[in-house]
Amino acid sequence: NLPIAATNGIDNSPLQIFVKAKKKINDIFGEIEDYVKDTVDYMHEVQKEDHIVSQEIVRQIEEFVHKVHSIREVLARDHMKVAFFGRTSNGKSSVINAMLRDKILPSGIGHTTNCFLQVEGSTTEDPYLTLEGSNEQRAVESVGQLAHALCEEKLSESEMVRVHWPKNRCLLLRDDVVFVDSPGVDVTPNLDEWIDKHCLDADVFVLVANAESTLMVTEKNFFHKVSTKLSKPNIFILNNRWDASASEPEYLDQVRRQHQERAIDFLVKELGVCTPKEAEERIFFISAKEVLQARLAEQGHTALTPLTDGFQTRYFEFQDFERKFEECISKSAVKTKFEQHSQRGKFIANNLKELLEDLYNEASKLKEEKLYQRKELTDKINYTEQQLMIITQEMKKKIQNMVEDVEQRVSKALTE
Ligand code: GTP
Ligand code: MG
Q1: Nearest C-alpha neighbor of 324 from the set 278, 383, 355
Q2: Which of 3, 15, 75 is CA-nearest to residue 330?
Q3: Which ipTM score applies to this complex?
């Protein structure tokens, strides 16, 4: 029951770069695991028969089984993570809902996000919540109930609530994208704690700015902090509420140019995270509210509301953002997550190879020694045989001589 529009082009989604790479690297680790297990079985056999393999070597090889297994466990949990930041009410929760094509997160008046909310795919039929430090699954029936549950909990703003949403309801979640929503950066003095707790493993950051005002010091300050802790973070800037510009079309181009220039300056000159050309692909003018409304209507959940001027252009720009975002997050996650795994995989394979080579050399040496010992033994036997032959021949000769001597003497005695 995936949204019709979302099912188009499943296979050419840039997220597939990550999905396919994950499958491939998992298959490779599957092979390594089989290979290591076979080696352990073989070692146990060899150990029974002979004293070639020491207990220590077998232990070392057995350890690889655990290592490969734990890499596979981490790999299975690997995902692409995007975190949304910005001032209160700029539309962070609305952007996430628009991307997920559903009203998952509470937004709007009275629904201020008051803690970190992570939306991730689940294989269950129904959505549920888990709170930090607990595995207890709490049912979520509706957005209203989710918002209510979040208020009831009296959570601290840096705490994380995980929303497990059925994968079969959303392509992005199916493809292992995890969304992190945050309270407004203007409501907390704890930005450092936020970053340390929730941001260090994010592949992409989205700054949701308000197109009706200019980038604020608090928003900039947050990203300055992020870029001291992470080298070249991937940052997108969404100038949200761009639908407001429809009411003043005469200033539209001018306002857009001004926002664009300031945002480029921020990414390029202030943060130094990208080139001016790259920055142009990171800044978008959108309306999350409109996109969400259109997508809900498309799925028949709500009636289509009258469209504001320029809706189509803003909708296209949102789709353009989604595509660039998918490309960026997919490539970045492959690099940061799988590069480490493949390094460790190579390390394990090399270590195993070295151990087996040492073992092979040891065995060859042993074989040579045995052959040498056998040769020495054969030489000894040959020598003894020869000696025996010589001795026997001499004995024969002596006996012959003796017999001849006796014969002579006897015949001499007889003639005398
Ligand atoms: P906090 O969680 O309180 O920090 O806010 P938020 O950044 O998550 O904003 P939220 O998504 O809750 O949106 C705040 C209000 O702005 C809601 O009433 C939204 O409907 C509205 N809103 C969001 N995006 C847009 C937009 O593009 N245009 C307009 N006109 N309103 C929007
Ligand atoms: Mg919110």
Answers
A1: 278
A2: 15
A3: 0.99
